[in-house]
Each structure stands twice: as structure tokens, then as C-alpha cells.
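Notes from the 1:1 (GR / supervisor)

We went over the backlog. Supervisor wanted to see one worked example end to end before approving the batch request, so GR pasted a single chain during the call. The sequence is below; no edits were made to it. Supervisor asked that the structure be written out right there so they could see what the output format looks like.
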Amino acid sequence: MLKRLLEHPRAPWGVVVLALVVTLPALKLGFVTDDYAFRALLHAPPPYRRPAYDLFRFAAGDPASTARAIATGHTPWWTAPDLRIHFLRPLTGVLTAIDDAVAGAHPVFDHIHSIAWYLALVAVVGALYRRLFANGASATVAMLVFAWGHAHVYPYAWLAARHVLVGGLPAAVAVWAHVRWREDAWPPGRWLAPAALVVGLTGSEVALGGAVFWWSFECLRAGEHSRRARLAGCAPAAIVVGVYLGAYVLLHAGARASGGYHDPMSDPRGFAAVAATRLPVLLGDALLGVPAELAMVTPPARVALLGLAAVAIVAVIYAMTRKLASERERAALRWLVPGAVAATMLGVPGFPSGRVLLVPDMGFAALVGVLLARGFEAGPHRALRVVGVAVLVLAHVVLAPLSSWRAIAKLDRRARTSETVAKRLADEAPSDGRLFLVASDPYVFLYPRGILADTQPGAVRCLSTLSAARAGHRITRVDERTLALEPIERPMLDGSFDTLFRGDRRPFTVGETIRQCGATLRVASLDEGRPSRIEISFERSVDLEDILVWSDHHLERLRGLAMGETTVVAWSAGPAGI
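Structure output shown during the call:
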């Protein structure tokens, strides 16, 4: 009965409906963190207004503009002078501007827009599986695994992450169209595939994963194909990607000097170093649902070991199930799985996050789908095979939608907390609009800036985060106008979110000074190039009430610090646990 249901021609539409059920809770999310910052950039007066096509230029890499941003509190004082975080996502930016023009401050329309992109992607991936697998049940199960992937929550639930869908959907269309052209001699596929890839790359760099699958198909698919035919098949994607990478260089896009983003083009050594842990972390998320985000709050090496264990478990299950799969299924997996692994490498440069798995999951979901559809069949090692496949069922069918709903609820709580922090900052701002902050969680020290810029521009004229180290802090009043601040458990820029703005390859020097919000910050001591003590000199006598610290899970004023006295502020987790 279940097999007939899975093989029914209308089964894919049922999967699309199930995908809709999982995504619906996202409708109540509203705007979240960076969503406010994008709205502020679109609404800002000239010359601060950002054109919609260049909305994802977070840092341009220009020391002069970085110095101005530091002085005015728009970026942390420790930001590397040559920091560049610039992504080419013009189509996504334009779509964001259209949403803003149509719906304004009512984000339900924006969320409907994102969900529509996701449902279309699920339908296209399902069509690809139907084309590749002779067994309709395997195609339907693989489509369901993809549709319910918990790693896909951020692309359809967080508006600022919609670029993954805007790049991912055309990339999937490109792969499907190319397969149709090469295998079925379908004439429209010859031009539709490269055209879709071009559209995807205007939405997001994640569309490069579509080119990776394209090349994997040409190089690893079954059948007799000459080298010349393979090169001809790869050429359209190679031309599109070559032009795109050329534009990336000419327009000064990419990442540089960041400890969060590692551009393989400008920093190959840094990229290789982080890939050793981040690739297993992402593989564990894709294959067994181990959240990649765990690497943000626990040592990444531990999460990487879990990822390697997940790879080993799935490899053993596949070895026991392989002979039960049809030849067409095995032929498809021969290029889909290597393509998925290679496409995952494209997500390694950023902070570990499941959202970069959206395109690679076209291959991973296919693998898991075949294992689930075939794993319960009679044959060798059936008892052991059933146990292994049951683990996959638990991870991808039972827990995946529950994990998605939990992630949406957590995102909602964090977003509302960040809004509360922004309101508190506005309420606590003195008459000159300058505030100083000690907090490690980005939902406290980073994202409220964008919320204030959109909802209460001018309420806080300059916000200086003195430290975002994930540690307790020792604060000493040195004299009437000077404070000393020392992280206790670890120095600054040691694995917390503050590394987004400065990587290890941009060390500080003792005595280095930075001006921000009318104060002068001096690096007094270092621990392997990372500040372990800073001294803050104010223009006037220190007003401790202008300094807010995150303590016991809330913001409070720094009070009662006499001349020469020291106080210790214990670390406590913020909304994100960072």
C-alpha cells in the first residue's frame, strides 16, 4: 500500500504539500536581525542609501571607509582596516527592494515570497529525481527528505538568507535541464541550462553548486562518452562560471581579513585550514542531521568528529544496500554524491551553517532517499541494514520537521530578544547618543544596530562595543577618564563571533590606538596577537551609566566603580548562546 502510494504519479504534489506544512510557521516570524539592516540601507538618505543591486556589500575593503565606520560606531573598533565582505547578489537585492516597496513594514508578504521559492525548488528537485530514478518510490522518498531538510530552515524562514533560494532554484533548474538535454535530447535544455545558471549566479554564489553538479554529471555518469563529448558538455557551464568569477574579481567581491569568511581566491591557506573541520561538520548535518551550528557554541573539532562518524555510518548502510538499488539509481548516485560533496566545499568559507547545504542536498537527499526506499527490502544483512536505515528514518523523516519547527521558534525568540535589546539601548542612550557595550552575543552587540537604524534612526548616535569576547571581564577604573578592560577566560578574537571582523592574519600591536564614539581605545597587552587588555580614555570624566554590560542574561548599567577599584562581570550566554 505504502509503495503504491509513493509510486503514484501525483505523489510529488503530496510532497510539495508536506513541504508547505513544514514552512508555514515561518509566516509569523516577521523581520529578523539583518532584515532591519537591509531596510535601513534602502531607506537611508543619500549618500548612505545603498542601491538594491549592491545590498550585500557589508565591508568594501577600503581602509578609509573602514576608519570612518569605526569612528562612528557602525563597525566594531577591532575591525581589520582592509576587511572585505562583499557578495554579488544583485537579483536578491532587487527582490528585497520590491518586497519593501510592495509590503513595507508588513513582512508576511516577504515570507510568502520566500516560501514560494522553496516550494518551487522542491518541485524541481522532485522532477530531477523522477527523471533519474526508475523507481518512483525512491524518487518520492528522496524528494521528501529534501523537502523536510532541517538545514533549509534559514533560507525560507529568514528573509536575509533568501539569497540561497534565489541562487538555488535556478541552479536546480540548470541541472535538471542539462540532464534532460543530454539524456533525452530535449532541445530547450541546451539553452535553458546555461540561462538558468546565469540567473542563479545573479541571485547568489550558491548557484556555483549547480555548475559543480553539471560537471559531475558529465564526468562521472554511466555510459560511453568520448572525452571530447564530455568537454563539450562541460563547456557552457565553464564559460558561465568563468565570466562570473571574472566579474567577482573586477568588482572587488569576496572576503578578506575576516575570521568568519575565508575566500579561497584571496586566502587559499586560510580556506584550507578551516576546510579540515568545516567540511566534516557540514557532511554530518547533511547525512545524519547533526546541526552544523553546533560548531558555533562547542569546539568545532568535536562536531567534525560527529560528522565523520555520520559519513562512516551512511557509508556502511550504503555498502549493505547497494546491490538492492537499481542500475539507474546507482548510476545517478555515482555523480550526485561526489557532486554534493564538491558543492559542499563551496559552503566552507562561511561560518558553519546548514543553509549552505541547500544545493548540495540535491545529492545527499538522493542518497538517503534510495537507502530509505531500498533498505527494508529482503536480502543480505537485512537485520543490521534495517537498524541503520531506521536511524536515517529517525533523523530525516521523524526529527527533521520537528527540528525545523524548533529552529523557527528559536529564531523567533532570538529576533524578539534582539528587538528588546535595541529598545533598551534607545531608552538608555544619554543626550549625546553615545553608548558603550560589553557583550559577546551578536543578537546583543551586532544586530540591534540594524534594528535601531531602521526603527529609531538617531536614537543611538554612536554605539561602541568595547569587547565581544566570550568570557568574563575584569573592569578597572584607572583614573577619572580611563577604564581598563580585560577578558578573563580568553583574549578577544579567540573563536567568538567577534572574529567575523578580524582574522588571525591581522594581529594587533601593543600600543595601537583606535578612536570610536569620542573615546580612544589603546591595546595595552596581547595574547598571540589578540588583545588581552585594552584601556579606554574618554573625553570627559567617565560616566559609568553610559556603559552597559550583558550580565545574568540581560543588559545592566555599570555602576559603583570608585577610582582604582576593579569589578568582575561574569560571562552569561546571550539569545544565541554565543
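Supervisor's comment: Residues 177 and 191 are 9 Å apart (CA to CA).
Batch request approved.
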